[in-house]
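Quiz preparation item.
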């Protein structure tokens, strides 16, 4: 019998059993079971202690979580590898229990053609510690179809833009409508960054003229009329066209946006949304950390409202919008909040924060497995991912619910080396992360770099560069 996870042969071929762990599955209370892995997938679930195999990992007293699927990360590779790389970003994901990351097309060059899509996919192959999917971008219907054929998981629609990413921009309602219409025909996922760039810019300029350079002013614009009117446009178009539309980082738009979305989805079930796991507070973290925590920092009642929406399924999925900006890029925001880019590194702390909330009784375990894994898999249309069920990939995390630990930014894996959660004490320490049955990270160390695979829609891409583990 082998009990150390890294000693497990787990090459994806020989069957082995994870014995006696407490499994987290959607819609159920956690229950102790044996989980058999064969050929990289979950081959059986059985009552505890009933499976007899030579290769055993003892999970007695431990929790077995589904590996998280992060719908929304920015690993900035290629183009801005001073912020993050495939290696550092996926190492952070692996050590934080995320087994599939979906990278946005806002890399450089921007991913707006099939050729660029193929180049990015090939450049990631053989370097990722966890599985990866890549979003397409842009507005050209022919290129969108060609990127879908290359395996793009879906398209990201940007109704707002920033310097260097203009090719991804859908500047008006008609462009957004065209991309949504093409996407309906392609049947792929659509993730929308809602907004109205001109209205938000005008709002910002008014605040600057009034002398506002504080972080609260930036939040005021994020939650202001520009983004709300952009959101209304998307919700109207989704209802009109009838397809599936996913709202990226809904929490960043504030409470009014959440209520607007919830009313719309009651009438149109094709709508879905993601939120960060809400764990930063306007009362404590904003005064202490300033722009570092923008834009997803909340007053206590809003944090509670977001948690409730994540608990009752009003918000489908937890996604990080992992935005690794360096200290040098963030620091000018200390004197002028407009000078700092938005976002913070989050992929390594997301699942731990959600698990901590479950263990402290703040979030129901029955919804946890859905929000972090099953719902993202549904949104992407990936039946083989997203949960602890027979036939699915054995993407899972062994965690110790009895131990607590301190988030230490010096020990995290993002290239930028800082975290807004530095110093937090969390319940539930992640032990081992498995991707397709293979242990890839253990106690914060990467075991097996470069074995993550590309996850795409079925298509011609299946033939060529699937190597890498
Ligand atoms: Zn983003």
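Solution:
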């Amino acid at each position: 019998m082998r009990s150390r996870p890294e000693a497990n042969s787990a090459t994806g071929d020989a069957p082995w059993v994870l014995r006696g762990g407490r499994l987290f599955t959607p819609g159920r209370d956690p229950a102790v079971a044996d989980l058999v892995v064969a050929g990289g997938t979950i081959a059986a679930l059985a009552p505890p202690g009933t499976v007899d195999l030579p290769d055993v990992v003892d999970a007695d007293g431990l929790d077995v979580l589904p590996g998280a699927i992060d719908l929304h990360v920015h690993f900035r590779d290629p183009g801005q590898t001073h912020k993050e790389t495939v290696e550092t970003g996926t190492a952070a994901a692996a050590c934080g229990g995320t087994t599939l990351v979906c990278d946005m097309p806002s890399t450089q060059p921007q991913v707006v053609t099939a050729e660029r899509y193929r180049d990015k996919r090939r450049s990631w192959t053989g370097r990722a510690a966890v599985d990866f999917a890549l979003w397409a971008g842009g507005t050209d219907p022919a290129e969108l179809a060609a990127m879908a054929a290359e395996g793009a998981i879906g398209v990201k629609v940007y109704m707002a833009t920033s310097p260097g990413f203009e090719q991804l921009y859908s500047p008006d309602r008609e462009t957004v409508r065209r991309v949504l219409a093409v996407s309906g025909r392609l049947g792929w996922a659509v993730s929308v960054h809602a907004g109205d760039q001109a209205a938000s810019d005008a709002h910002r300029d008014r605040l600057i003229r009034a002398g506002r350079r504080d972080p609260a002013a930036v939040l005021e614009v994020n939650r202001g009329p520009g983004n709300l009117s952009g959101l209304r446009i998307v919700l109207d178009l989704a209802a009109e066209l009838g397809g599936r539309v996913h709202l990226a980082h809904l929490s960043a738009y504030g409470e009014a946006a959440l209520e607007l979305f919830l009313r719309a989805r009651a009438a149109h079930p094709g709508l879905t949304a993601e939120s960060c796991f809400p764990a930063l507070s306007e009362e404590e973290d904003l005064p202490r950390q300033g722009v570092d925590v923008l834009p997803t920092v909340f007053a206590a009642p809003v944090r509670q409202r977001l948690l409730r929406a994540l608990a009752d399924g009003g918000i489908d999925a937890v996604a990080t919008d992992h935005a690794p900006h360096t200290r040098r890029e963030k620091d000018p925001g200390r004197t002028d909040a407009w000078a700092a880019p938005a976002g913070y590194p989050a992929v390594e702390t997301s699942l731990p924060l959600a698990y901590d909330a479950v263990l402290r009784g703040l979030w129901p375990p029955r919804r946890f497995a859905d929000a972090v894994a099953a719902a993202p898999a549904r949104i992407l249309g990936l039946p083989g991912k997203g949960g602890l069920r027979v036939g699915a990939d054995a993407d899972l995390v062994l965690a110790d619910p009895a131990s607590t630990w301190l988030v230490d930014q010096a020990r995290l894996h993002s290239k930028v080396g800082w975290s807004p959660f530095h110093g937090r004490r969390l319940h539930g320490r992640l032990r081992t992360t498995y991707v397709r049955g293979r242990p890839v990270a253990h106690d914060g160390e990467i075991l097996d770099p470069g074995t993550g695979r590309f996850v795409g829609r079925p298509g011609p891409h299946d033939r060529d560069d699937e190597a890498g583990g």
